[in-house]
Amino acid sequence: QVHLVESGGGLVQAGGSLKLTCTTSGRAFSSYSMGWFRQSPGKEREFVAAISWTGGLTSYADSVKGRFTISRVNGRNTMFLQMNSLKPEDTAVYYCAADAMTTKSSDYAYWGQGTQVTVSS
């Protein structure tokens, strides 16, 4: 069975930082592109960032460029999202996803359960 598990969410004040981790098991996700999405109540799921299977290519939503960094360790089924200079509008449930590198959530075949990130003013 395929499992993706996010961790690292929590409560942080505006301007602070959090680092999210996505740990996978059940198959060799090191061979696949992966991404991060987020969703707030009343809003559609939003693309945040994506990374190629080698880690050599990354992409970001305009809203997080310069503040968030996506990374992975080559050959390991682990992905990270370093979030700096957090803003209240970053508050959302953050999801990791696998097997695509697009901004469209329906392109991704595998999803975690999400981790809550709350940024207070």
Helix-strand category: mainly beta
Task: Output mean pLDDT.
Answer: 93
Biggest sheet overview: 7 strands, mixed
Helix-strand topology string: EEEEEEEEEEE
Count every helix, treating DSSP H or I runs of 4 or more residues as helices.
Answer: 0
Q: Beta fraction of the residues?
A: over 45%
DSSP summary, beta strand count: 11
* N-to-C span: 40 Å
Helical content stands at: under 10%
- The low-confidence parts are none
Round the Cα radius of gyration to an integer and report it.
Answer: 13 Å
Tell me, briefly, the overall form: globular
Question: Any overview of this molecule?
Answer:
- The strands form two sheets. Strands 2, 4, 5, 6, 9, 10 and 11 form a seven-stranded mixed sheet that branches. A four-stranded antiparallel sheet has the order 1-3-8-7, with no helix packed on it.
- The protein is 0% helix and 48% strand.
- The mean pLDDT is 93.
- Strand 5 and strand 6 form a beta hairpin.
- The chain is globular and about 40 Å long.
- By secondary structure, the protein is an all-beta fold.
Supply the key terms:
mainly beta; seven-stranded mixed sheet; 0% helix
Short description:
The protein has strands at 3-7, 10-13, 18-25, 34-39, 46-51, 58-60, 68-72, 78-83, 92-98, 110-111, 115-120. With 121 residues, the protein is mainly β. The chain is globular.
Please specify the SSE layout and strand pairing.
Elements: E1 3-7, E2 10-13, E3 18-25, E4 34-39, E5 46-51, E6 58-60, E7 68-72, E8 78-83, E9 92-98, E10 110-111, E11 115-120
Parallel strand pairs: 2-11
Antiparallel strand pairs: 1-3, 3-8, 4-5, 4-9, 5-6, 7-8, 9-10, 9-11
